[in-house]
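Work package 3, deliverable 3.1, input record:
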Amino acid sequence: MFKTEICELLDIEYPILQGGMAWVATAELAAAVSNAGGLGIIGCGNAPAEVIEKEIKKIKSMTDKSFGVNAMLLSPFIEEVMDLLYKERVPVITTGAGNPGKYLDKFKQIGTKIIPVVPSVALAKRMERSGADAIIVEGTEAGGHIGELTTMSLVPQIVDAVSIPVIAAGGIADGRGFLAALTLGAKGVQIGTRFVCTEECEVHENYKKFILKAKDRDAVVTGRTTGHPVRILKNKLYKKYMELEKNNASLEEMEKIGMGALRNAVIDGDIKCGSVMAGQISGLVKDIKSCKEVIEDIIREASDIRENLNDI
Ligand code: TUI
């Protein structure tokens, strides 16, 4: 059922990856997704290697299944994190917020699968030439640091431009989105926001409830003017950003209010002044389930739709 080349490449049952969300994607969440047949991914964000090392040890104790680690390329600790991932021989690395070209050769030699997130056709082609095993094509619907183009328009353009498998991300939370992505030519999906609202996700309850309460237009973008667009749920922090942008505040001033804001939301539950990163699909997420239920519901819904396609 929905076995694609991504399942073979990553040694997983269903072609569903969990987004490697900074602060949110802990070993606990990632192990639950891997144990349910998807690919759980630990998010490094800006954490130093010693913190990630503990998470890797923990996931290895919680599952025998394959897992991944997301390396955020803007991190000040990126070099020590990459050295750690090499030492630990993690099975899969996804990268975000930059070009991982210079690391590819080294990891290919030890068989680590490298899957960069790309926001454009040009970068997708460059990644294929550099030897990426697959690419995650992330539309602007996603939460956190985002590109310009939508999943709907970007996925088929990149599918036509490269021969490596494409994984679609951004705006996918159920069986309809999963099947739509496969119809666009993707061989799998990456899902973030839906996995935040799960029993195994360790974010503060306030963070989950804020997503459950969100409506279609609540996921907004800060930092368009500074060149670092980040999608969050609308709150006091967003209003402060908008004020600063209107008053042409300096880059330092803007970055200062963002510092630590994600941690404040995820760990302390400060959803008013913290950064509640979440995607446009937040409005569709209405309950907390286990990761296993999320994955099984997606597969069941997608196969029901596929069976009844003649009705459309
Ligand atoms: O990386 C993400 N999403 C993230 S990272 C993150 S942590 C953070 N916190 C505050 C500010 C900035 C980051 C939160 N969410 N998604 C993957 C992604 N990668 N989206 C877009 C890109 C991307 C952008 C430019 C990938 C490559 C790229 O290349 C530029 C170049 O070097 O050519």
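DSSP finds 14 helices and eleven strands in the chain.
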